[in-house]
Amino acid sequence: MSVEAAPRPVGVDIQENEENRAVVEAIEADNDDLTVRHMPGIIRLTKSGQLVINQASIEERLGRPWETHEFQMAMISYFGEFVEWDDDRIVIAWKH
Amino acid sequence: MTVPTQKPARKLSMQQRYSALTHDLDWDPTYVTEEEIYPYTTFEGIKVHDWSKWEDPFRLTVEAYNKYQAEKDRRLYAVLDGFAQSQGQLGLTEARYMNAMKIFLQGIPSGEYQAHRNFSHLARYFNGPGARFASLCQSLDELRHAQTEVHTLSHYNKFFGGMHDWSRMSDRVWYLSVPKSFFDDAGTAGPFEWLIAIGFSFEYLLTNLLFVPFMSGAAFNGDLPTMTFGFSAQSDESRHMTLGLEGIKFMLEQDEDNLPIVQAWLDKWFWRGYRLISLVAGMMDYMLPKRVMSWKEAFELYFEEQMLNGLFKDLEYYGIKPPRHVQWAIDEKEILSHQVYWVLYQYSHAAAFTTTIPDAEDQAWLEEAYPDTWPVFKSVVWDKAQRVVDSGERYFNPGLPQLCQVCQIPMGFTEPGNPLVQCQRHSIYEGERYDFCSDGCQWIFDREPEKYVQAWLPVHQIYQGNCGGPTLPDVAVWYGLEPGDGGEYIGSMDHQDWLAWHAPTIKEG
Amino acid sequence: MQFELRTQVVEPRRKTFSNLVRRYGDRPASRYEEGSVDIQATENFHYRPLWAPDKELYDPTYTAFRLTDPYSFMDPRQLYYAPYVQSRAASGEAFAKSLEYVDTRQLLLKLPEGWQAIVADLLLPLRHYEAGAELISIEGSRFAYGTTIDQACTYAAFDRIGNAQNISRVGIAFNDGHAHALAEAKEKWLGDPALQGLRRLIEELLIERDYAKELVALDLCDRLLYSVMFTHLDEAALLSGAGAYSLVAQHFSTWFLDQRRWIDQLIKTWFADPEYSEVNKAAFNDVLARRWNQIVEAVSDVAAALDARVDTGAAAAAQAATSAVAAQLSELGLTVPGGK
């Protein structure tokens, strides 16, 4: 399933810590052409179109079960819209 | 995070389960009418045909909410305890950094608390169970933020001035009527306007500007508790942004007659919120000893790029246009922080924070961040202030400023394109003259003059004798100001203590 | 060591915030106090609410119950947000464990027939009662005067929607993972005569516009209903081979004990107020005069319906609870209307 997404940038700010490294790595692996910017304490990931966070990729890197709800613990902010938030993945995009 | 115990396979999807646990709890009343139970959702003119169309992408349940929030707070309070035990305040960049935190404590927890109470209003009075439950969670979050802010700064209060009477000050002190009137304005509006005002315009459009650079700045200045609190609060904020975005889209999708109402609220609340966070501009550029980014850069990144080029292109689909006075804000981005801090500098003898002339390092940074505007501003303002200091005095404005009737900030903003001419607008209502700092504030007044004439304007109140007495010392007592709260930073109690704590004899122990 | 030397010279200027020093003297304050006392604005409001132009944004006259000092009420549990969510995360986990135990062994499906009827017809519909109770409680979160009362109401509201969700989870487990028992329970809530007294009460309370009167009436009903549905039936279930019901019920009884602590303290504070004690008793009596018989009847309807499914003596238990609560209220100097 793919989500129709407007080709404008969307992004997410993630708190930089050990726990979230796997989350960031998974997002980097699953999203081509990602822009990564470091600020004190924050990693900012932006991308044109849609940004996907996959449960399976994160679990693989963490070596434990990871519920998509847990993404709220990692995220500081975002821009775009959560067009999908399910058990297995989260998608950020602009709908129009 | 503890690993959840293995659950039996679910037969209901996340969405079905969420629906069974939230939306489906509602029923249509028969002993009384729906209008009697929810009497406040019609007078604003917003038309809703089907509340079940309200979507909450997070689909949190009470169980999940408690689990994740408990974990967040366990982490946060562990940091606060550790910081206090290790006298972490000694590791800040400089004591003057705390001025930003003083304004934060005096202005923000009261606002968070207002948000808590008014989201409870929505949690009670929205007809739709999905909208109510999201509002309920946000109400709890906002209470969390008010309390964690107070608890985060509680340790600093023991060692620095300006924070000791924040709740009374937020009801009384002149510059704190800026945030107070903002939240009072939203809380006295109807539930849909509140949602556009706070849920959308403030949370979605503007809080990133308030929090992200600010908390990153805290990280940069050795303020571990504020950074931890801020990032932890922001993780709730993502849910709040979603509620705001869902709210505006819901209104726009329910009926096309809602568009002009929503657009007018958006125009109003963008400008209200933007004026409010201009205080943040002054704090970011002038009060942090080490800076992450300038106001101008943050505005470009978090507002122009994300909102104007991202969000508003999305909302175009519904016929929404960018906020009415947005160009004025863009034009101001190079001068806003200079003007705000100059106001704070002149009046800090009547405030619960201290200010000082930017030092050489600050000036070099300002020159690089604002090559076009800083040199002019420096020669017009700071060189003069420096000459006063060189003569052994400190310039404070002896008079009381005129305040804008809407945003309540002292009139110190300038005409667009002409940073040397003060902007002043006025309207006549029922024979009285009311003054404004900008076209934006005047436009807001002219839409609802009967509301804004009620404003409790601190300067008027002082003249009317409602603030403890006729002289500045009387007012200072009524404000709850103590020695060490306000004035010039250099030589202040905070500054002297800081030097004593870091005196070489102790450092080399 | 550098660190120790430093800490020796750093004397704090003050122990806590000035508002707490004014109230309690110069002593260290708890996090409950710092996060709860004097947080709400009390003066210099800017504008009148569009939806209540005769009131201030925060106004003690939103209810007939008054306190001279709103912070004379302090939550005996001292709950602020962090300990609140932590305690609820723990009780949520405990409930989930009980339910998982019941669910994996399919104990709800193996309940004796009469007990299955009790769950389907009378327990599951109460999720709507709890949802209504949430709305009543959150009204206090907006309209209470002072942060300590607001805060207790807020947590009560969240607890009650949590209770509603937990009852719904029982329903999903009862159906082996599907939701149709919930749909049937909703029909019962809307139409079964045994439940109409409760539903009518909730709906009528929701249009009162006095959060404290609503809260008091709800609490009177809770005292009787919880006593029958959870305390009485818990014991009866154990005696009649319905252990799954007991496992579920104990969580609600435990929650209600916690809920009682702050409500009892609030009532005590109202009646001990130096200025408003009589005003508050009159307001309480007004609730009793208007609602007591309605509540007693609504709960006895439920009790009769319980006995019709399994004769556990629920009607007698309801009567005993009614007499006990009436006696407690009389002891407080209140006037309890005579029964039907």
Protein described:
The complex is a heterotrimer of chains A (96), B (509) and C (340). Chain A has 96 residues and is an alpha+beta fold. Chain A is built from 3 helices and 7 strands; from the N terminus they run E-H-E-E-E-H-H-E-E-E. Chain A has a 4-stranded antiparallel beta sheet with strand order 2-3-1-5. In chain A, strands 4-7-6 form a 3-stranded antiparallel beta sheet. In chain A, a hairpin with a 2-residue loop joins strand 2 (35-39) and strand 3. Chain B is mainly alpha-helical and 509 residues long. In chain B, the strands form 3 sheets. A two-stranded parallel ribbon of chain B has the order 1-6. By secondary structure, chain C is an all-alpha fold. Chain C has one domain (80-331): Orthogonal Bundle (Ribonucleotide Reductase, subunit A). Helices cover 70% and strands 0% of the residues of chain C. The chains are: A alpha+beta (96), B mainly alpha (509), C mainly alpha (340). Chains B and C meet through helix 1, helix 3, helix 4, helix 5 and helix 6 of B and helix 1, helix 3, helix 4, helix 6 and helix 7 of C.
Ordered list of secondary-structure elements with their pairings:
The complex is a heterotrimer of chains A (96), B (509) and C (340).
Chain A (H helix, E strand, L loop, with lengths): L8 E7 L2 H13 L4 E5 L2 E7 L2 E4 H8 L8 H4 E5 L1 E5 L3 E5 L3
Antiparallel strand pairs in A: 1-3, 1-5, 2-3, 4-7, 6-7
Chain B lengths: L13 H8 L12 H4 L24 H24 L12 H28 L3 H29 L8 H7 L4 H11 L3 H30 L3 H31 L3 H19 L1 H10 L7 H21 L10 H7 L3 H12 L6 E2 L4 H10 L4 H17 L23 E2 L2 E5 L2 E5 L2 E5 L2 H9 L1 H4 L5 H6 L8 H8 L7 E2 L4 H9 L2 H4 L2
Parallel strand pairs in B: 1-6
Antiparallel strand pairs in B: 2-3, 4-5
Chain C lengths: L1 H8 L8 H7 L6 H6 L44 H24 L8 H11 L2 H18 L3 H28 L5 H12 L1 H13 L5 H29 L3 H30 L4 H33 L4 H18 L9
Helix pairs in contact in C: 4-7, 4-11, 5-8, 5-12, 6-7, 6-9, 6-10, 7-11, 8-9, 9-12, 10-11, 10-12, 10-13, 12-13
